[in-house]
Amino acid sequence: MIVIDQEQRIFTLHTSHTTYQMQADPYHVLLHAYYGPRVEEDMTYLIRRADRSHTPNPDEAGNRRDYSLDTLPQEYSTCGVGDYRIPSLEVEQADGSHAVDLRYTGYEVRKGKYTLEGLPAFWGQEAETLILFLEDPASHVVAELYYGVFEDVDLITRAVRIVNRGEKPVRLLKAASLCLDLPYAAPLDIITFAGRHMMERCPTRTPLAPGIQGVGTTRGLSSHQNNPFVMLCRPDAGEEHGLCYGAMLLYSGSFEAMAERSQLEDCRLVMGINPYHFSWTLEPGGAFQTPEAAMVCSPSGFGQMSRRFHRAIREHLLRDPYEGRRRPVLVNNWEATTFDFDADKLVEIAQAAAPMGIELLVMDDGWFGDRDDDYRALGDWAVNLRKLPGGLEALVPRIQELGMRFGIWVEPEMISEDSALYRQHPDWALAIPGRAHTRGRSQLVLDFSRQDVRDHIYGALKAVLSSAEITYVKWDANRTLATVWSAQLPSERQGEVYHRYVLGVYDMLERLHQDFPQMLIEGCAGGGGRFDAGMLYYTPQIWCSDNTDAVDRLRIQYGTSFAYPVSAMGAHVSAVPNAGTLRTTPLETRGVVAMAGTFGYEMDLSKTTPEERELMARQVRFFKEHYDLIQRGDYYRLTDPFENGPFTAWEHVSPDRREALASVVTGPVCGNPPFRTLYLRGLDPALRYRVEGGAAYSGAALMEGGYPLPMELLMGDYQSFQLYLKAE
Question: Which residue of 97, 514, 630, 662 sits 20 to 30 Å from the alpha carbon of 706, by its own alpha carbon?
Answer without folding.
Answer: 630
